Amino acid sequence: MPILKAPRNPLVYLKAKHITSIEDPVRLLKLAADTKNLELGKLIHAHLIVTSADAFSNNIDVIQSNFLINLYAKCGQICIARQLFDCMPVRNVVSWSALMAGYLHNGLDLEVLGLFKRSMASVDDMCPNEFVLTTVVSSCSTSGRVQEGMQCHGYVLKSGLVFYQHVKNALIHMYSRLSDMEGAMSVFNTVQACDIFSYNSILNGLLEHGHLKEAMQVLSIMVSKRVKWDSVTYVTVFGICSSLGTLRLGLQVHCRMLKTDIECDAFVNSAIMNMYGKCGKLVNAAKIFECLLIRNVVSWTTIMAAHFQNGYFEEALNFFVNMKLEDITPNEYTFAVLLNSSASLSALRHGALLHACAEKSGFTDHMIVGNALINMYAKSGYIEAANEVFSDMTYRNSVTWNAMISGYSHHGLGKEALNVFRDMITAGDSPNYVTFVAVLSACAHLGLVQQGFYYLNQVMKQIGIEPGVEHYTCIVGLLSRAGLLDEAENYMRSVSAKWDVVAWRTLLNACYLHRNYGLGRRVAEIVVKMDPNDVGTYLLLSNMYAKARSWDGVMKIRKLMRERTIKKEPGVSWVEIKDTAHIFVSDDNSHPESRQIYEKVGELLIKIKQLGYVPDIAAVLHDVEDEQKEDYLSYHSEKLAIAYGLMKTPTEAPIRVIKNLRMCDDCHTAVKMISKLTNRVIIVRDANRFHHFKDGCCSCVDYW
DNA sequence: GTAGGGTTAG
Q: Are residues A590 and A684 in the same domain?
């Protein structure tokens, strides 16, 4: 039967429960502790003091005192619990155990270890039992104390306490938390039977550490042994489905759950929504969210994350508004999802606003928020701010380092990227798969061919990271950038990686930039076969023909595009001015200040022509006169956006422009000169990378 | 009398 929550006045509560006298104070103390009813507990405590045999010495017996320690510990009053404990003339193992559990549940795990050490040396008759060891082992889990945890395991084995179910489960959990899955499995496989707690702990540990195959094996044991799942099992198994990304399994588990009488609490619902989101079924996740009667911060964050993961960044951000309307306070995970959504939109102002919100709510100290901030600033073109957040962080993990290294890499700042990598090694953090993608791409930016191979063949091997296609693609980029095109092609043909269209396109782009049109055309054929709908390839190919003055070739490509009904995606650029993102499409005059903008572009072009700018009319695909070709180039979207930025921002402010396609040669040359002419820093994020234009130069050193 | 497992980020 559920226990009613007590009214504010405990006397009224006692009356309501038909308790007219406190005959059994200990039972009431237990009730108060279990329902976390501090007021009732205090009342009983007062009663005990008044009615104790010797009221003046407050001499309450050991059992009653133990109940009181438990009461105060459970109600979050650990200091009072400690005072009581310290005042006890005689203590027993339960006194120690109750206080230790209190410290553990109040987040003071290191106090537990201290108390345990003290207890072993104390005059009290304290032979640690299964309760004590369960609590102490748990505190090793939460405090990350590997050494002490293993010592406890030794003691537990010697003393025979390992045969207690709680102790075994605490050990499985401890090894899982301390990332020792071999240790966890060895405890899991001991003769002592497993209950649902053991299964849940081992499943969770395997999931957390990415051992999905082993998790599935345990799951199949559970199924064959007909172990009854509880709601925690479902949460964990949905987590496994999410990590595997297999919708089929997810649906099976969801069906199984619906057939049982499992209570679908906030945990379970969030786990299901997360599963659907990660398996690409956003609609299912959204449906569950809409049907939820009570939504907590995790439900909101989960549905935002599902939208973010499926590419609906703006929608993810919009949930924040509704969440606030329902008076739900965001947490660090909420800010991480919001910042990452903002990052994917390169929405610097919005991201900075979120940064301010997070700062105000005190979440910027959390590592996941710091990581998301680095990502947001880097992807929004403000690499200096990313570095500022990075430098201020007290705790870093591999994601932190990776975000900064790849941030620098995307901005073409290879030296800085490698410096951060060196700091990562010095700090003793282990680089992973993602780290080396960023490191190798930094090597490519710097043209460090030998160093790149050294990282791939020596360092990665030493650390035990199996290179993947992303790493091999970086090597292709590295060779290509250094102009070693034949070597790059040979490399692709000799290494048996699963070369994808990205890798071939890297080589193709290199052929274009190094004007090796023969190899370029051959590679382009491969790329077109792999992705016949990619406009970029046709344009590159056509440009290559144009640069080689092979007009037949240009015609051929144009015909091919017509036949395959491939349309050029319009170039779109945008620039944030105050609260608004101003969007420009090439040759578009829908902006209210269009006339002034065109005038500004014209004015800039005249001035940079005096500095030596020559429009790259060969790149224009239209069948028109040269003069008209120049017009087509003049009003490319990024030129419009930059002109508007120059018109609307103070002279010293950098201009940040985002573009959907790769920047064309002509714009690249023009923007370099505009940066010199106007003495501005112009940062353009195109489909591939960032270009920092300053003093007539670009950070990509004209290779992109 | 005191003890064990779960949701959202990359």
A: yes
Determine if strand B comes within 7 Å of the CB of A134: yes
Boundary-marking domain end, from A487, A511, A535: A511
CA distances from A652 to A197, A655, A668, A693 (A): 62, 9, 21, 14
A235 touches strand B (CB under 7 A): yes
Contact, A95 CB vs strand B, < 7 Å: yes
Residue A661 lies in a domain: yes
Q: Residue A598's domain spans which residues?
A: 582-698
Per CA to C1' distance, which residue is closest to B6? A232
Nearest protein residue to B7's C1' (by CA)? A267
CA-only gyration radius of chain A, Å? 33
A156 near A167, Cβ under 8 Å? yes
Residues A95, A127 contacting (CB under 8 angstroms):
no
Evaluate whether A177 touches A137 at the Cβ level (below 8 Å).
no
Of all nucleotides in the shown strands, which has a C1' nearest the CA of A30?
A: B1
Tokens found for residue A60: 């309450």
* Predicted confidence (pLDDT) per residue in A488-525, tens digit: 999 999 999 899 998 999 989 888 888 888 888 888 88
Question: For strand B, is any atom closer than 7 Å to the CB of A195?
Answer: yes
* Chain A window 398-457, residues with Cβ within 7 A of nucleic strand B: 398-399
A656 inside domain: yes
Whether residue A567 contacts residue A536, with contact meaning beta carbons closer than 8 Å, is answered with no
Q: What is the pLDDT of residues A351-379, one digit of tens each?
A: 999 999 999 999 999 999 999 999 999 99
pLDDT of residue A445: 84
Structural domain contains residue A369: yes
Nucleotide nearest residue A167, measured CA to C1'? B4
A309 touches strand B (CB under 7 A): yes
Gap from A285 CA to B3 C1', Å: 37
Euclidean distance between CA atoms A672 and A656, whole angstroms: 14
Mean pLDDT of the region A455-484: 92
